[in-house]
Specification:
Layout lengths: L8 E3 L5 H8 L4 E4 L9 E4 L9 H13 L11 E3 L8 E7 L5 E7 L3 E8 L2 E3 L1 H16 L7 H4 E3 L8 H11 L4 E5 L2 E4 H18 L4 E6 L3 H12 L3 E6 L4 H9 L3 E2 L24 E7 L7 E6 H13 L8 E4 L7 H12 L2 E4 L5 H8 L9 E4 L1 H11 L9 E5 L5 H10 L4 E6 L9 E3 L10 E5 L3 E6 L11 E8 L5 E2 L3 H7 E3 L8 E12 L2 E7 L3 E4 L2 E4 H9 L4 E9 L2 E8 L6 H10 L9 E3 L13 H7 L24 H11 L17 H14 L15 H12 L1 H12 L4
Parallel strand pairs: 1-5, 10-18, 12-13, 12-14, 17-18, 19-20, 20-21, 33-34
Antiparallel strand pairs: 1-4, 2-8, 3-7, 5-6, 6-7, 7-8, 9-24, 10-11, 15-16, 16-26, 21-22, 22-23, 23-29, 24-25, 25-28, 27-28, 28-29, 30-31, 32-33
Length: 737
């Protein structure tokens, strides 16, 4: 730097700097800082500079540049202070004197700009720091500021798509005895799988089956035979739970699906076997539902070529294959089942059914001593955290891999995992069903940083990070994620309007390809993309993606409803209804119980006199929640007619467990899990706590058909005895020492 002139510092002294560092720059803090705070400086030259910039113009440039890198786009207004010893231009500084003790510094010299940041013991990511410095230079010197191609479009590696049926036939020809499916004590080799699948395809042809075939998810050999047989017939499969559900029946009818035909028996070979369809083409491979929050969810259609590209990624990266032992833990509603079944078949691996719906028991079996030397577990972070709650005292000595996805991955969970499973490789996978399950991945994540990155595009996939005008954003900035490439799905069945809105032309393609708008905000850092949350009305509740705007519109269209508001508040889904004159909110509650997906049917519609609006005309959920705090569950017996017998109070240990899971202290023997808002994650947590606190060997299956706490208590007393419950309650009541 030229000249000995003393610099001037600019410091932000106002409430809100903590949120600037923790929230505004979320995902920007990576490497652990040295004790002396040294290191982390990123310098960008000023080749077009005509002279030094004055303090006020430098401050404006810094403020303008920084705003583009924040999640919320706001910067605390700085006030000038002098930094002792600063030389060579202007030193701009924003401090956080809160718990994180953060500092963000920008030094503006005559020929360069240097940026450095430190917060909560971590340094500002170099990509973010460099991006801020480049933006300051562009503002000061009038240049547009370069946008590196890597930030505008990030490309995954190449992939060779080979059709799934062709891969299965290849394994059958070259190694027919290799085990393709294992369910308990029964096994099926690739040679027999190919033969039975051909016969099943012929039966579908003879029956004149529709283009989409419903395949019941039975967790046994028949499920896999039917899946491969449907594909071999040139049709698409719709995998659904085996239990009867009128809502699922309606959905299957909506897409024109045929119920799967029974598999031919050995004594009845069925019709003549035709040659299987095995080609990488635009024919539909499967249909999967997403955001199924109301009676008409979105049906994602994935083609054969898109599935082939995704399986190519899984096989090339060694996620699936002959040496991989990965139990099928997913339910048919979640797209991880594609990896666990179809991916394993494509790679020549073994599809391993656990024989139980208890995910924790399936994970426990996979990691038990004497099991595979390199086990692979694929689940969501919430489930894995629940497993550690129950079995965190059991170290896993094997190697292997933990594939997590479907939710944001907390670095604390990564650190906790490595204490129990030190040799594991933890991969963080991201992607919606509209991109054939996964779009990006971080193949080996650590606990560094304030957010765990979702990494880079998978093979065959490209991503764009764009702003609201669909212009590319630079490194370190916050933008919306768009996914392009071979794995992007065809669109939504019979829904051209929503397909056109979500699947847009890919600006990087010369062939008219499309990209999918995820609605997710990300930051591009040195560790790859960092997920920062949703940017639209789609949110996740306990791992289930829902569209609050679709829910609101669904209620607002009901007769007797003037307006509605739906959204998350303090982690819970709140629903407000403004009834029309002469109407009540009961019709809305009845509709929720009948038409919304099972996990949401316990949500209550809260009647209000008026739905307030924000300045943009949208329902003001914050104002509604402030005026109408979440209602507590009524006290036992409240509102009951005189003479009504109040059920005996449940056992104290169950009161504690249910209060913890459902977030209320108002629990009695008549408490209903459905009324308290149960969903699959809360069910999982209940069973996990029963196993941990009561040392009860129970699973989901033990509580099938039960809903009230008294019924759960009866099951547990039969399994472990009343004495075990008493002992656990006594431990819970002991004062802390």
């Amino acid at each position: 730097m030229a000249g000995p002139a003393r610099g001037r510092a600019v410091r932000g002294d106002m409430d809100g700097t903590s949120s600037l560092f923790a929230d505004g720059l979320a995902g920007a803090w990576t490497r652990t800082a040295a004790d002396d705070g040294a290191g982390g400086d990123v310098t960008v030259p000023r080749p077009a500079a005509t002279g030094p910039a004055d303090d006020e113009w430098s401050r404006t440039a810094f403020r303008t540049a920084l705003a583009g890198f924040l999640v919320d786009g706001t910067v605390p207004p700085p006030g000038p202070v002098r930094e002792p010893g600063a030389t060579g231009g202007t030193v701009l500084r924003i401090d956080d004197d809160g718990p994180g003790a953060g500092r963000l510094v920008c030094r503006v010299g005559t020929d360069r700009v240097t940026v450095h940041g430190r917060y909560a013991g971590r340094l500002l990511d170099p990509v973010v720091a460099g991006g801020i410095a480049e933006a300051v230079v562009a503002t000061l010197d009038g240049g547009p500021g370069p946008v590196p191609a890597g930030a505008a479009r990030i490309e995954g590696g190449p992939v060779t798509p080979i059709d799934v049926v062709e891969r299965v036939l290849h394994h059958a020809r070259h190694d027919p005895g290799r085990i393709a499916v294992r369910a308990g004590d029964t096994e099926l080799g690739y040679g027999e799988l190919a033969e039975r699948s051909r016969r099943y395809a012929a039966r579908l042809d003879a029956a004149g089956a529709a283009d989409v075939v419903v395949v019941p998810y039975r967790r046994d050999l028949r499920t896999v035979v039917a899946l491969v047989g449907v594909l071999a017939s040139g049709r698409a499969f719709l995998l659904r739970a085996d239990d009867r559900d009128e809502h699922q029946d309606d959905v299957a009818a909506w897409v024109g699906a045929t119920r799967s035909a029974p598999e031919p028996s050995p004594d009845d070979p069925g019709p003549a076997v035709a040659a299987p369809v095995s080609s990488v083409s635009a024919v539909a491979a499967y249909v999967m539902f997403t955001s199924g929050t109301t009676g008409r969810p979105k049906a994602v259609v994935v083609q054969r070529d898109q599935l082939a590209a995704y399986c190519g990624f899984l096989v090339t990266e060694g996620i699936c294959g002959p040496g991989v032992t990965m139990p099928v833990l997913s339910s048919p509603e979640f797209d991880a089942v594609i990896k666990q079944i179809v991916g394993q078949l494509a790679g020549g691996g073994t599809v391993a059914f656990t024989g139980t719906t208890d995910v924790l028991a399936g994970i426990e079996a996979a990691l038990a001593p004497g099991g595979p030397a390199e086990p692979v577990v694929n689940t969501v972070p919430t489930v894995w955290s629940q497993y550690l709650d129950v079995h965190g005292d059991r170290p896993v000595g094997a190697g292997g891999a933990l594939l997590l996805g479907g939710e944001a991955l907390d670095p604390a969970l990564v650190e906790r995992t490595r204490r129990v499973w030190p040799r594991v490789r933890i991969a963080n996978l991201y992607g919606p069903a509209e991109c054939t399950s996964n779009a990006t991945w971080a193949p080996d994540v650590g606990a560094d940083g304030d957010r765990t990155p979702v990494g880079s595009p998978i093979r065959g996939t490209d991503v764009h990070v764009l702003d609201a005008r669909l212009a590319p954003v630079g490194p370190g900035r916050v933008g919306r994620l768009y996914v392009a490439g071979a794995c992007v799905a065809r669109g939504y069945h019979s829904d051209p309007r929503r397909t056109a809105a979500a699947f847009r032309p890919d600006p990087g393609s010369s062939t008219g390809a499309r990209m999918y708008e995820t609605g997710d905000r990300v930051r591009f850092t040195s560790a790859g993309l960092v997920y920062l949350g949703r940017d639209d009305a789609q949110v996740k509740v306990n791992g289930i993606r829902i569209d609050t705007e679709s829910l609101r519109a669904d209620l607002a269209a009901l007769p007797g409803v003037r307006a509605a508001a739906v959204g998350l508040a303090d982690g819970a889904l709140r629903v407000f209804v403004e009834p029309a004159p002469g109407s009540t909110h009961e019709a809305a509650e009845d509709h929720i119980r009948r038409a919304w997906r099972r996990e949401l049917r316990g949500v209550r519609a809260e009647p209000v006199d008026r739905i307030p609006a924000t300045s943009t005309g949208k329902a003001d959920l914050a104002a509604l929640c402030a005026r109408h705090p979440a209602a507590a569950v009524p006290a036992p017996g409240a509102g009951e007619p005189a003479g009504t017998t109040v059920p005996a109070a449940p056992h104290r240990v169950l009161e504690v467990i249910w209060s913890s899971v459902f977030g209320t202290e108002r629990i009695d023997a008549s408490s209903s899990a459905t009324d308290l808002g149960v969903d699959s994650m809360k069910q999982l947590r209940l069973v996990a706590l029963y196993r941990r606190i009561l040392r009860a060997e129970v699973s989901f299956d033990d509580f099938a058909g039960t809903d009230r706490i008294a019924e759960h208590q009866r099951v547990l007393e039969e399994r472990v005895g009343r004495t075990r419950l008493d002992e656990a309650a006594a431990l819970l009541e002991e004062p802390a020492r």
